[in-house]
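Section 5.1 Outputs to date
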Amino acid sequence: MLAPGANTAAIQAAFVAAAGGAQSQIAQTTARKYDAAMEKFQRYLHHELSITDLAAVDAVVVAGYAHTLQLECQDEGNSGAAVTDALAAIAHRFRTLNLPSPTEAPLVQQLRRQAAATRTTRPLRRDPLEVQHLRALHDVVFAQQPLQLPALVTLTAATRLHYGCLRWSCLASVGFHADCIQFGPGDSSVTLVVAFSKTSRTGRRVTLPAVAEGPCPVRLLRRLFAAGGYGPLPSGPGVPGPLMRAWRHGGGGVSLVAGKALPRDTFNNHLAQLAESAGIRARLTSHSGRIGFASEAAAAGDPVTSIMGAGGWRSERAAKGYMRPLERTPAPGGGVGDAGPAARGGGRGAAAAPHAPSRAPPGHTPAASLAGARVALSLLAAWPRPPPQPGLAPAPATSMLHLLLHGEGGGR
């Protein structure tokens, strides 16, 4: 865990404010949806009930409208999304006008729960970013001579999004400061302070463990700091720049801009280019890391509740919307150019078994790094599994969470 610094609260507050740009985009999209829902509701009030003043709307009126929408959904074979969206829009408009919302009435809440029970989650229009994809990207990036900064930044960000099960807004809120980033003993892990997220604005800590093979989130970050000219982590007062920096071309080369965050569109475009170079057919975006994390954890048999906790999903339905079938094609071997001593067969991790999970540092417990579940699931995503033997049925995947809780010899 990070030791609380003197200005941690100020830094988090500044990054919550700085993340307002990303949040405002979400709010604008939601506002357009609410405006459309309210326009339909006001047409209903005017044509059906001759009501022109929202102050005259009570719970009975809203319940009648919700019931009408519910019947429309049933006739058209749609889910209850229109009902829940309409009630959310009505509640938002009443709060904006400082009026008590009739949507809080028990009758309306009962209709909302009925509609929510029939609401379906649309599959996300992105493909999962799997560990085998990260390894292929890793090979492409470190095969480039000289090493290209934009490619290194993109790979580092993609690795963080996958292993941490992070949204882009979460990663963008991490600052380059000693109160926001701390490496574990012997670079066994790196802990990031996420100052802003969709489901929690108070900030949280995400611990990403080192992995022995391929794209290691710890070694990649060290490599980025060295190649990008970051310098030592500042620890004094003041608001730091972003961890993931934008790049610019000039002076015959490429450099990172200390005060400018990497735009999401720039990341998505460069990720698509790297994926094409690596022969990856999947449609990868900044959200593919969360999809890949949830998909691989589900494929390994981890409980949905654990996956929900790691990804910050509040409902089982939302979490299952991120779980996709995996390609299950043979993944490339360990990455080149950034493999640490353990992956090269020497150094501290040389004695580890090829498919055994890495040992935690002395005195480390699962509860010591974000309740254990996030670290366990992050390790699970990076844990290489042996290929099935010819003529034998593949063994069931063993979750890293299960190994941490029950030991290697425990039954499933």
